[in-house]
Design goal:
337 residues, alpha/beta, Rossmann fold, 2 domains, 6-stranded parallel sheet, 12 helices
């Protein structure tokens, strides 16, 4: 096993004395910004973590997908629910938490952190690979679709959840369902798209897909729905990956004089307050965020205890919450007496 880097290794790489390197971390003596930056970069390159008193544990929380941040003010609250639940679970377990968006952000703090939690890694995620390369304890919510070897992750069962929601639309009479999905390459979005395409082809139905940059939010969802409704075989149902895409879809349908759910069905993959309070409340899959977050925190504690990885990965199934957007009776169903 490679010996863990020490403070003197960091100092040598940064070209300073061990005392100066120590002050760069502790702040007990003034160190120039350039020297501090050099020390912290050296620590990041080497994977060095400053030793702490027992019981002090600090974790970096990598916020993903990063495109959710710029659209926060008008964006999906499903994302903030995930982040909030994970943050509270980590704090409840006694961790101090610092949040980051990019690898550069991490580089300025690496020596002060014991481990990392990465949310929704992208395909070939450069942050995850950098952390693994440096031997820094890391766990993820969802897996990198390109990395079959990394074992420290839990996930929702996105495939099962997408099938449940698509089956619900078909049971409610959809004959030409369309998909509006975010373009980020991660397990969540790729699973939804994969299930949709597979099911449409298996049933001999047209594949009607629009991929959107998630930053486009509600307006993007409306534009995508409008373009699909202008096709020769317009969809009679929409499955969306974002609650704001779903809200935009309803707006586009109503602008064309279509009624939801009588003429068009709409359903979203992740439940949220936005979905619940939409002008036509939206059917969605509801996650127990507390269970998700607590399991991720337990995985982190296992990772830090040097225990072996789990042999199977937790994949949570969500619950279908039916609302007015798919309230059309199933074909052949008898009216309530």
């Amino acid at each position: 096993m490679t010996e863990r880097p020490r403070l003197r290794d960091v100092a040598a790489r940064a070209g300073v004395s061990p005392t100066t390197a120590s002050h760069a971390f502790s702040g007990r003596r003034p160190v120039s910004p350039a020297t501090k930056a050099a020390v912290l970069k050296a620590a990041f390159d080497l994977g060095f973590v400053m030793e702490r008193d027992a019981g002090q544990r600090t974790v970096g929380l990598l916020l993903r997908p990063p495109e959710a941040i710029p659209g926060f003010a008008s964006g999906s609250d499903a994302y903030t629910s995930v982040v909030g639940a994970v943050l509270v679970a980590l704090l409840s377990a006694g961790f101090s938490v610092s949040s980051f968006l990019t690898l550069d952000d991490i580089g300025a703090q690496i020596g002060r952190l014991d481990a990392f939690v990465l949310l929704h890694p992208r395909r070939g995620d450069e942050v995850l690979r950098a952390l693994i390369r440096r031997g820094i304890p890391t766990v993820t919510l969802d897996r990198d679709p390109d990395d079959e070897e990394f074992p420290w992750w839990i996930s929702a069962d996105h495939v099962a959840n997408a099938r449940t929601l698509l089956d619900h639309l078909l049971e409610r009479g959809a004959r030409h369902p369309a998909l509006i999905v975010g373009s980020t390459q991660n397990t969540y979005l790729e699973s939804i798209a994969g299930v949709y395409v597979e099911q449409m082809r298996a049933r001999g139905l047209p594949v009607l897909v629009r991929e959107l940059d998630p930053v486009r939010g509600r307006e993007g969802g409306a534009a995508a729905a409008e373009s699909l409704l202008r096709t020769p075989t317009p969809p009679d149902a929409f499955l969306t990956s974002s609650d704001v895409f779903a809200v935009g879809t309803i707006e586009a349908a109503r602008a064309r004089g279509l009624r939801v759910p009588e003429d068009v069905l709409v359903a979203n993959m992740m439940d949220s307050v936005i979905a619940e309070r939409a002008v036509v409340p939206i059917t969605a899959m509801k996650a127990n965020m507390q269970v998700w977050a607590s399991q991720l925190t337990r995985l982190l504690e296992r990772r830090l205890s040097s225990a072996a990885p789990l042999t199977s990965h937790l994949r949570l199934e969500f619950d279908l919450v039916e609302r007015a957007s798919t309230g059309r009776p199933a074909p052949g169903a008898r009216p309530a007496s």
